Amino acid sequence: MPIRSLLSHKEFSYANKSEHRLVVNYEGVISLLNAAMAQFKKYGCFRMYRKGIIEKAEVYYQSGDLTHALQLWVAVVRDGIPPAIRKDILQKAISAAYCMASMKDYLWCCVQLMPSQPLAEQGFRAVLHSTVPPPPFAASEVTAAQHLRVVE
């Protein structure tokens, strides 16, 4: 074998190994968060328990399970949290509801966000007028593949 093909084979092998190392084990992360949340609940650390719920929702969102993420975010927001955290979570929840086409959750998030964001009010009015609401996220966050998927 020539040296060049050996080097390319080694490079491919290293690239393949590093790619497998960087894959996130979402199920493992969720099980660890569940164990941590059980301990927080057992010892009465309710702020940390709530933080665990938020982190768990983030993991569900990153894994593509928008339904579970949205359920957890809505539960946390209804619990009563500080306004700065609430706005951030509601922004993520409205994006998840929009992507899932969950009208009930989208409208609920719009109503919650109305005092602080005019875009939420525009989305609410669009639904009342039976038109498609504008996306609750910036256009720069939408990839070309996602844009093509919507057009088709």
UniProtKB/TrEMBL annotation:
One of its GO terms (cellular component) is cytoplasm. InterPro entries: TPC11. Residues 7-114 form the Trafficking protein particle complex subunit domain. It holds the Pfam family Foie-gras_1. This is Trafficking protein particle complex subunit 11 domain-containing protein.
